[in-house]
């Protein structure tokens, strides 16, 4: 593998490299791939309008084809961060307009490309904001194949399209999870729940390995519903991050938390979502597993399943105070 910087005057970077990642990776057999640290693209999905595609300018790699806004990742940048940054630079995607749902990685060993599929949560109109686009359009899902697609995107599209209907939701029994860690939570239930909320947000944003939720592709960013009860109901809603809408929703149980957890799980099962309920409560487990709907039944994951993953997540700064403070 060889790293080759852009040539002087190269149209892709007419003013020279903008970041250390702006370089070609050249394989031993001569193939060139853009992005020293790999590349990432954003597939923004709006169920009412379709997917956002970029008509690539003639001088670009496979110019004249349609593909996703994207480009070279920066050093120490996650694929999600890189894809959203590139989409903001190339298509004017506003802060907080999309929520990442899953990532699909093509790994060639010397170089990788990650497609980040994200749901549009704040409708927007794309804006051509750099010289790499001839056009930006929302294309209905059924019409994507009719466009002359970039070969890489054309190869990935069938799998990506099939997964657009898969929506994982993790419903968390806050009392059960908080109560399983002897960290003094009983002194401040709302505060302990707020810490759990923030760690769940970071966990969902970083993504979950597909194998942990028995789904295809590489990594998933599930929606998280945190069900609180009693004194923990005072926990405040999380704030959206600058680049992507927050992944955690707070549901405050008006009475028994178990009843609200079952109701939330049933609602998502009926909507066709892939539902995972995190609890180690046996009675609640039986109630959840008895749910049925048009899609897959809800599955239960023990608290340890979640805690083992949260242990790998750095502690987050509290995003907001508790509602009662």
Automatic annotation (TrEMBL):
Cofactor(s) demanded: Mg(2+)
Region (Disordered): 1-20
GO terms of molecular function: hydrolase activity
Domain of life: Bacteria
Pfam assignment, any one: NUDIX
Keyword annotations of the record: Hydrolase
InterPro entries, per the entry: NUDIX_hydrolase-like_dom_sf, NUDIX_hydrolase_CS, NUDIX_hydrolase_dom
UniProt xrefs under SUPFAM superfamilies: Nudix
Gene3D superfamilies linked to this entry: Nucleoside Triphosphate Pyrophosphohydrolase
Residue ranges that the Swiss-Prot or TrEMBL entry lists as coiled coil: none
Nudix hydrolase domain location: 35-161
Protein known as: ADP-ribose pyrophosphatase YjhB, NUDIX family
Organism annotation: Microbacterium azadirachtae
